[in-house]
Design a protein that fits this description.
Layout (H helix, E strand, L loop, with lengths): L2 E12 L2 E12 L3 E5 L6 H9 L6 E6 L5 E4 L13 H7 L14 H13 L15 H14 L4 E5 L7 H14 L4 E5 L3 H7 L2 E6 L1 E5 L2 H9 L5
Parallel strand pairs: 3-7, 3-8, 5-6, 6-7
Antiparallel strand pairs: 1-2, 1-4, 8-9
Helix pairs in contact: 2-3, 2-4, 3-4, 4-5, 6-7
Length: about 230
């Protein structure tokens, strides 16, 4: 089985307090992995290490050649006075690193953005400002931007945080559809839903325990592991 990313003896500390110790695991391509564990157990740190936002103090993180990783933080802050629409945000995902000033989007880029908007269920909201979106819609718009960028792996830090039950359900349904073509990793406390979708689960509490069967972790949690 192809592995998109592998952690080997990874340690990360904030000063004298270590959040991640001895992390050894890999993430299979085109599968959905759920990170669960107590608050302060290191899930957000692990997500940021995967996304390349932080570097480990010790150990190695190997990303398979050609794998691009997109990151969705727990919360996004947008200036309500900045006139950025859903279409604007998703179109940004089509831009390369070699941005040329005043260059207009091509028809191909616009088509790619339109398809991404459709796939995240925001058709009809293309011209709506980001400040006018609900929490669930904004989260889907950010994921749409990643889809337009052709990223092959998406890591999400508690994507259902602050969402109501209906919005969270829609978000997880979308992620379930995407896992057939993207490697997806998410941290969540919504175990009943997240573990039902997961191909693999990792219990994170400074150290990592990998469960190839998410159902096995769910049964283990009932036996007394504290969240």
């Amino acid at each position: 089985m192809v592995q998109d990313i592998a952690f080997t003896n990874v340690r990360y500390c904030y000063g004298e307090v270590c959040a991640i110790v001895g992390a050894n695991f890999s993430l299979p391509a085109k599968q959905l992995t759920v990170l669960v564990g107590p608050n302060g157990g290191g899930k957000s740190t692990l997500i940021k290490l995967m996304a390349g936002l932080m570097k480990p103090d010790d150990g190695t993180i190997a990303v398979r050649s050609g794998v691009d990783i997109g990151y969705v933080p727990q919360s996004n802050s947008f200036d309500p006075f900045f006139p950025l629409t859903v279409r604007d945000l998703v179109l940004q995902g089509t831009l390369s690193n070699a941005i040329k000033p005043f260059r207009r989007y091509t028809a191909s880029q616009r088509d790619k953005a339109a398809l991404a908007i459709q796939r995240v269920g925001l058709e009809g909201l293309e011209s709506r400002g980001l400040s006018q979106l609900s929490g669930g819609q904004l989260k889907r718009a950010v994921i749409g931007r990643l889809l337009a960028s052709d990223t092959s792996m998406i890591v999400l830090d508690e994507p259902d945080a602050s969402l109501d039950i209906a919005a969270a359900k829609d978000l997880y349904a979308m992620l379930s559809r995407l896992k057939a073509e993207k490697t997806i990793v998410l941290a969540s406390h919504n175990l009943d839903v997240a573990l039902e979708l997961a191909d693999q689960a990792i219990y994170v509490n400074k150290t990592m325990t990998v469960y190839p069967s998410a159902r096995t972790l769910k049964e283990t949690l009932k036996g007394g592991i504290s969240l």
